[in-house]
Write a structure and sequence with these properties.
- It contains 7 helices and 5 strands.
- It has a single domain, classed as 3-Layer(aba) Sandwich (Rossmann fold), CATH 3.40.50.
- Strand 4, helix 5 and strand 5 form a beta-alpha-beta unit.
Length: 231
């Protein structure tokens, strides 16, 4: 049997990236990449990354530090002076881009992934971006990845052929949960909370989004929460 081709999977430790890794694992050999960028929960997200990587038995792992994001600020995830939203208003379709948006973050993640993929001979990059049922981040839109695909073609060696895959981009969060369960993805190891490194707070917009998705899916969320509000 031929060896599966290699894919770099961007794995934050969250639910979407975990299910994306499970999808990639069906057809590719995983090379998992994690970025710490000065976010509030970077240590807990790193733990989630390590535990998910161990679950899949992945040996090829890369953890990169992007400390400039803490210096740049402008996001509630990286600037401690900006409060993490807990009202749930940011989840409304008309709410606009929330303060948890980290400016142009995914371009940095993808750039690291492309560099690594070119070195290790990976033919694919998987990223768990979600457009339909997320917070409205502009770097999670399908056209963004179409543009970045063109950039890869222009900015790598002529013999390099790397394709970006966004397998959950058009799914609702509840659909992602069902897909993860179908693939036996370790959802219990994932972390979504924006502001707590221990028990998930249950009140930030990311926790609300996750809780709402599990409620819609009719499935119990396997992680513990310090508190819960109606999602």
């Amino acid at each position: 049997m031929a060896e599966k081709p290699k894919a770099v999977v961007l794995l934050s430790g969250g639910m979407d990236s975990c299910v994306t890794a499970a999808i990639a694992n069906q057809t590719h050999q995983l090379a998992l990449l994690h970025a710490s960028y000065g976010q509030r929960t970077e240590h807990r997200e790193r733990r989630a990354f390590d535990e998910i990587a161990n679950f899949y038995g992945t040996r090829e792992r890369l953890v990169v530090r992007l400390d400039a994001f803490r210096q740049i600020g402008g996001s509630a995830l990286t600037d401690l002076e900006i409060k993490v939203p807990e009202s749930g208003e940011a989840l409304a379709p008309q709410a606009g881009i929330p303060v948890t948006y980290v400016p142009f973050r995914n371009a940095h993640f993808l750039s690291a992934a492309v560099s690594w993929a070119e070195v290790i001979g990976a033919k694919a990059i998987y990223i768990g971006a979600v457009a339909e049922d997320s917070s409205g981040y502009p770097d999670c839109r399908p056209q963004y990845y179409k543009a970045f695909q063109a950039l890869i073609r222009e900015g790598t060696r002529p013999e390099t052929h790397i394709e970006i895959f966004t397998p959950v981009i058009a799914m609702r969060k509840s659909e992602i949960i069902h897909r993860g369960i179908e693939l036996k993805a370790p959802l219990e190891l994932t972390w979504s909370c924006y502001q707590s490194d221990r028990e998930a707070c249950g009140t930030c917009d990311s926790c609300r989004l996750r809780l709402r998705a599990f409620a819609e899916a009719g499935v119990r969320d396997p992680i513990a929460y310090r508190a819960q509000v109606a999602p």
